[in-house]
Specification:
219 residues, alpha/beta, UDP N-Acetylglucosamine Acyltransferase, domain 1, 8-stranded mixed β-sheet, 6-stranded mixed β-sheet, 25 strands, 33% strand, globular
């Protein structure tokens, strides 16, 4: 019986971009193992970028003492649904980080994180499960980030910011720092648009765009 099976759940762009990160993560930790793609749209096994791709049901019945899966799905609601399914099936969430990811002092990152190349997480930070930080993103000191939060490439999250569950921060967005007594808050499920400059707290469930960021009104 194989000791541990590793897989990336999702073989679309997100999953294919994270597969090289997952490979170097295993190599850095001295683990030699194949990594599967899991794709529920597959009728039969195939090969994607040199890795065997199978359905979740196929992966679930493979014999091993332990299974670890990184969920590489951009949609945070789908990530949560899949994380719950893995938990029910006693399959653990897998966290991966690139060789040049920087994590400093006192950073607590929950399971299922995907930290792409050139990501920096500085000091005294708490991050929830299944966090996605894409290329060149950073999280500065004293931030609290909830579950299933997504950073697109180049996000600048400065100090004393609280980001609640399922928030999405678009490419190149800048979030102004808060203060210890008054952190800047990005509410649950909020979307910060590409290139937005956020200078004040964002309510839950809204989309903000522009510089300075303003709520995008629905027409």
């Amino acid at each position: 019986m194989t000791e541990t099976l590793y897989a990336i759940y999702g073989a679309s762009g997100c999953g294919r971009s994270l597969m090289p990160v997952a490979r170097e993560h295993l190599a850095r930790t001295g683990i030699q193992a194949d990594i599967y793609f899991i794709d529920d749209n597959l009728a039969e096994p195939t090969v994607i970028n040199g890795h065997q791709a199978i359905s979740y049901e196929m992966f679930k019945v493979l014999k091993s003492s332990r299974k670890s899966v990184l969920i590489a799905i951009a949609n945070s609601k789908v990530r949560e649904k899949l994380a719950n399914k893995l938990d029910q099936d006693e399959i653990e969430l897998w966290s991966v980080q690139a060789n040049n990811t920087i994590i400093m002092d006192g950073a607590i990152i929950a399971a299922g994180a995907a930290l792409s190349p050139f990501v920096t997480v500085t000091s005294n930070i708490q991050i929830g499960k299944c966090f996605h930080a894409n290329l060149y993103s950073y999280v500065e000191h004293d931030c609290i980030i909830g579950d299933y939060v997504t950073f697109a490439p180049g996000v600048k999250c400065n100090g004393n910011i609280h980001i609640e569950d399922h928030a999405y921060i678009g490419t190149g967005a800048v979030i102004k720092q808060g203060t210890p007594d008054k952190p800047l808050v990005i509410g649950k499920g909020a979307v910060v648009g590409m290139g937005a400059v956020v200078t004040k707290s964002v309510p839950a469930g809204v989309t903000v765009v522009g510089n300075p960021a303003r709520i995008l009104e629905k027409k």
